[in-house]
Write a structure and sequence with these properties.
Length: about 300
Amino acid sequence: MTVIQARVIHAMTIPFTLQLASDTASAAQLATLIDTVTPRVADFLRQVETTFSPFRSDSQVTAARHGDWSPLLADASDHHLPQSAAQGQRPSRHAGITLAPDGTRRTQSAFAEVYALMEQAKGLTHGHFDPMHAGAYDPTGIVKGWAVERAHEQFLMPLIKSGQCDAAALGGGGDIQTAVADTSDFTWNIGVQDPSNPHGTVRTVTMRNGGIATSGTSQRGEHITRSTHDLTQATVIGDHLTFADMWATTAISAGERTFRELVAANPAAQNDLMAVFIRADGTVSELKPGRSTPPSTNRPALS
C-alpha cells in the first residue's frame, strides 16, 4: 500500500504543497523524512522571493529596475541562494557558465541564470514571452516554475535516487514538478482547475516525471501583457516545469492560435508539450504532442 505525506509551505505570497510517496516506508518513517526536508525547501523558496520579488525594495530585481545589473556578473558562490554546484553536488540542469570581467569562467548566479532563461524564452516565443512588463524587468513569468523545479531537483530527487521514497511532488500557484522512481508504478493524478469554479476540474493529468504549469487571469487578473484573444487559462505539461511555465505564460500572452503556431514551428516543443486551453466562453480544447516515436508509459495522459 502506498503511503503519502504532505506538508504546506508559505512563501512567495502563496502556499506550496510538498508531497512524498512510498510503497515500502511506514507513515511514521515518511513523516520523519518529509519533516526533515520541508524546512530546507521552505528556506530555498523564501530566499528566491528575497532575490526576485519586484515588490521588495531590497531584492536584486528591484535593484536591476533601478539600473544595478551587477548580479549578472556575480559568481554562484557569491549568491545567498543554495547552489548545488557550490555544495559539491552535480550542478542544476539549468546552471550555466558566465565570463567574469577578468576572463575567468564561473558558474552563473541564480539571478543571471533566470535572466538568461528569460532571454531564451523571448527568443523561442518570438517576443510573446517578454522579460519586460509595463516597461520594467519582471521575471515572475518564469521564476516560480524555475524555483519549484530547482527545489525539487536539489532537495527531493536525492530522496528518490537514494530509495528513501518512491515519488515526490512540489507545487504552488498552478506550477507542479513531479517525479517517480523507475522501480515504482506510482502515478500522480493532477486536476486542471476550472477557472469559473475553484472546486471543479476540466481535465485530469496522469503523470510520473515532468512539470505542469497553469497561467491565466482568474486568480491574478491581467498580470501578463497580452494581445487581444479569448483565452482565459492555459495549462501546459512538459518534461521540465521551467519551460512548461514559460509556454503557459506565452499562451496567455499570445492566444491559442499563435501559441499553436509557435509550438508547430519548434520541433522540441511540438514533440514534448501537451496543453489544455480554456476560452472565455468556457469551451475547452487540447494540444497533444506530435511525437514520431511510440508513446512511453512515462508519458503524461489527459482524461
